[in-house]
Amino acid sequence: MTHIFLNAHSNGITRAERTSSGEWRVTHHAIGHRVACLAADPFHPARVYAGTSKGILRSDDHGLTWRLLGMERHIVKSLAVSPHDPGVLYAGTKPPAVFKSEDGGAHWMELEAFQRIRGRRFWRSPAEPPDWRAYVMAIALSPTDPKVVVAGIEFGAVVRSEDGGRTWSNHRKGAIRDCHSLTFHAKNGDWVYEAGGRGAAVSQDGGRTWEQPREGLDRRYGWACAADPERPEIWYISAGPIGWKGVPQAHVDGAANSYIFRKAGGAAWEKLGGGLPQPMPYLAYALLTDPGSPGHVYAGLANGQVWHSTDYGDSWQCLPFNLGRIWRMTLMKSPRR
């Protein structure tokens, strides 16, 4: 098997693939619209979806070619593919709404109960002036219960559904309202992780209740999160300082003053070094773990670098390619050619 990295950014998608000779080949694919999110399909190893400012695209060849799938009139900010039911997808949009497809994206229906969540009239995002409209920044699906869905709003709430999106809870107390990323553990449906504007939050009961562990976390602007595929108590976030002349310093390229942190059970957060710049001048906008490789973690930085650790973040190596401006990144595998 060979690894393929896909990076979503304002000009389309950048792709890096390791060839049979061991070299990395980087290609750029203009989409015509800003790409906000990526989601791989667990039932089709070569298939990946992209959410854009003008709908959803699909690739069936590991990101080499793309075609419009639907949702053309919507700004798609988040995507999730069901690990249980082939063809089931969820899409989150701006303004905040959630849509569901049960036929691989050919047809979509809005989950209208999402519009009736209490307090949604107060949802506002400071990230995208001048309209300040909130959006569904993240959707996470339980690996063990096909009906459990958790969604995060920037800025507004983290909400939960127990019936596949037919009904929704209000904001889950303890979760971070300014949600930047949200993910379930790959195998354990009890564990859900969040990085956001106040740091990090975690649930150990499938998203019903949350807590915000803060010991050792001296950066409060969390962005990406990921968890080890075998040990749910080991998880990671990227975080930087909040203040910088009205813009979070974490977003200031070259001066992000950020770190990658690791949480292991009840221990305090640890700043990870082992080869990483200290502090990191560029925020890690993407953190990924490999379901087939416990201990492995990847970090995609704003300057296009991808760093890799094989030992739970104790030591790191910068991979020999650059993906350009990284926004959202996913990892795919294909038979080595």
What does it look like?
This protein is mostly beta strands and 337 residues long. It has one domain (2-334): Methylamine Dehydrogenase, Chain H. Helices cover 0% and strands 45% of the residues. The protein is built from no helices and 26 strands. It has strands at 2-9, 12-18, 24-30, 35-40, 48-52, 55-59, 67-70, 75-81, 89-94, 97-101, 109-110, 135-141, 149-154, 158-161, 179-184, 192-196, 199-203, 221-227, 234-240, 259-264, 270-271, 284-290, 293-301, 305-309, 317-322, 328-334. A four-stranded antiparallel β-sheet has the order 3-2-1-26, with no helix packed on it. It has a four-stranded antiparallel β-sheet with strand order 4-5-6-7, with no helix packed on it. A hairpin with a 2-residue loop joins strand 9 (89-94) and strand 10. The radius of gyration is 18 Å and the shape is globular. The N and C termini lie close together (9 Å). The mean pLDDT is 94.
